[in-house]
Amino acid sequence: NAGVTQTPKFQVLKTGQSMTLQCAQDMNHNSMYWYRQDPGMGLRLIYYSASEGTTDKGEVPNGYNVSRLNKREFSLRLESAAPSQTSVYFCAITHGQAIRSEQFFGPGTRLTVL
Amino acid sequence: QQPVQSPQAVILREGEDAVINCSSSKALYSVHWYRQKHGEAPVFLMILLKGGEQKGHDKISASFNEKKQQSSLYLTASQLSYSGTYFCGTERTGNQFYFGTGTSLTVIP
Questions:
Q1: B99, A43: Cβ pair inside 8 Å?
Q2: For chain A, which ranges sit under pLDDT 70?
Q3: Does B12 contact chain A (CB < 8 Å)?
Q4: Cβ A98–B44 below 8 Å, yes or no?
């Protein structure tokens, strides 16, 4: 029972390159989230998916796209990476709505854009 | 939109107490608290819900003043394992969630 897994763990990109961050869960939870964490900024919500087949923008969605592939998987895509997207990306899940539920976080993906 | 936390950093000796505060400009349904150790993912501590219901499973306690839109996290008789960065989180809608900028807590022997 791994909980929440993220791949890759580390990634270095050049400006303009694209990549997809993967998140998978084995807890059968409905809601999934993507956050980014920058020094001094805390965690900021990029996108979330309340259930399979639905996605919504969070606080900082510009430059990102997401896909809720099925109940288990939620991916985050950077179409044209920029240095401002250098950050640590966390995927999280909840059983119900975030306001009432504990969030379980994945181990994170450390992304550097040169 | 981000909740404001204070203090930004605190250093304690083992056995001392600490209080971390979180305040929001918006009316809140709930406040969440998480702890993150360096290089790791945040870990849930507790949720405080409007109406007084509190959910958590740690010895650390917290309060939620709905009228003032404030919450405080109380760490008593601190242990070395309490070191880390503490984040409060608040909601805007059911799934829109905002974390504070964090409070760095260091416990020294």
A1: yes
A2: 1, 98-99
A3: no
A4: no
Closest CA to A92 of A56, A61, A46, A54: A46
Structure tokens at B55: 């959910």
Name residue, tokens 């509190």: B54
Candidates B34, B42, B101; nearest CB to A41 = B101
Q: What is the 3-state secondary structure (H, E, C) of chain B?
A: CCCEEECCEEEEECCCCEEEEEECCCCCCEEEEEEECCCCCCEEEEEEECCCCEEECCCCEEEEECCCCEEEEEECCCCHHHCEEEEEEEECCCCCEEECCCEEEEEEC
Task: Find, among B86, B85, B53, B48, the residue nearest to B70 by Cα.
Answer: B48
Give yes or no for a contact between A93 and A31, defined as CB atoms under 8 angstroms apart.
yes
Residues in chain B, pLDDT under 70: 51-59, 92-95
- Amino acid at the residue B89: G
Query: What single DSSP character describes residue A15?
Result: T
Count of Cβ atoms closer than 10 Å to residue B96 Cβ? 17
Residue contacts between A and B (CB atoms, under 8 Å): 67
| Per-residue model confidence (pLDDT) at position A98 | 65
